[in-house]
Design goal:
Number of helices: 3
Largest sheet: 4 strands, antiparallel
Shape: elongated
Order of helices and strands: HHHEEEEEEEEEE
Strand content: 5-15%
Helix content: 25-40%
Distance between the termini: 83 Å
């Protein structure tokens, strides 16, 4: 009986010892399955990440849009300007008017035109700004201070979208009935004045994921999806 038991145990032990590892074929099958799963899942994750960044960028631009409208209500039906502040572009000025610059510090001797030269002269440190000495603090508007802000050279600042692209700002020029390209230095979107159905009071827009301005196709009345148009703005979905 003892001999039979030991023989059985020896046989079982041999079976388990043979099954202790994977064969080369089995390993190749496992690796193949993993590669297949990665090939299926990674593009899905990439698309989800891209979609999330687009959504965040649209949400930030929407917040800036609402901030401009809060400014409009407070300043008696005037939207923030996009020109007229020295060397600042529209994209820099919108940061000033909606947030007041977070890094300025009161000097104790504000001048009569605080903010016009972006010096630390409005007596208000941190978010917000004044138009008069010791006067009312304006802003920040609609959470604009929570949107990423980057340096744009010197004391200039600019809002960024989720792709770290600058957000441009153009206020509509009623006299010339157009958005002025000169309100932002460098090459801006060339199609703003080619959209006859759109004449908003202002435009907030970024280059989007690909880092390039989109182009207009077809009848020049709407973006052509086939051109890879992915600019993000307060008027294009």
């Amino acid at each position: 009986m003892t001999d039979n038991t030991q023989a059985n145990r020896s046989a079982v032990s041999k079976v388990f010892s043979r099954r202790r590892g994977f064969s080369l074929v089995e390993l190749l099958v496992v690796v193949g399955v993993i590669v297949l799963l990665v090939g299926i899942l990674v593009p899905g994750f990439s698309r989800a990440k891209l979609s999330m960044k687009k959504g965040l960028s649209r949400a930030n631009i929407s917040s800036l849009d609402k901030g401009c409208r809060q400014y409009y209500n407070e300043f008696k039906n005037i939207f923030p300007p996009s020109t007229g502040m020295g060397s600042l572009d529209g994209k820099n000025m919108i940061v000033v008017y909606l947030t007041g610059y977070a890094d300025d510090k009161p000097t104790g001797n504000p001048d009569s035109t605080p903010g016009s030269d972006l010096s630390d002269d409005d007596g208000k440190g941190g978010w917000g700004w004044r138009t008069e000495k010791r006067g009312k603090v304006h802003g920040p508007y609609f959470g604009a201070e929570s949107i990423p802000i980057a340096s744009d050279g010197g004391n200039k600042k600019v809002f960024l979208d989720a792709f770290k692209q600058q957000i441009y700002y153009y206020r509509y020029h009623q006299g010339d009935l157009e958005y002025k390209a000169a309100h932002n230095s460098g090459t801006g979107p060339t199609y703003l004045n080619k959209l006859p159905h759109y004449r908003g009071d202002f435009v907030l827009i970024s280059k989007g994921p690909d880092g390039n301005w989109g182009t207009i196709g077809g009848t020049a009345t709407a973006p052509d999806p086939e051109t890879g148009f992915d600019d993000i703005s307060n008027f294009l979905e």
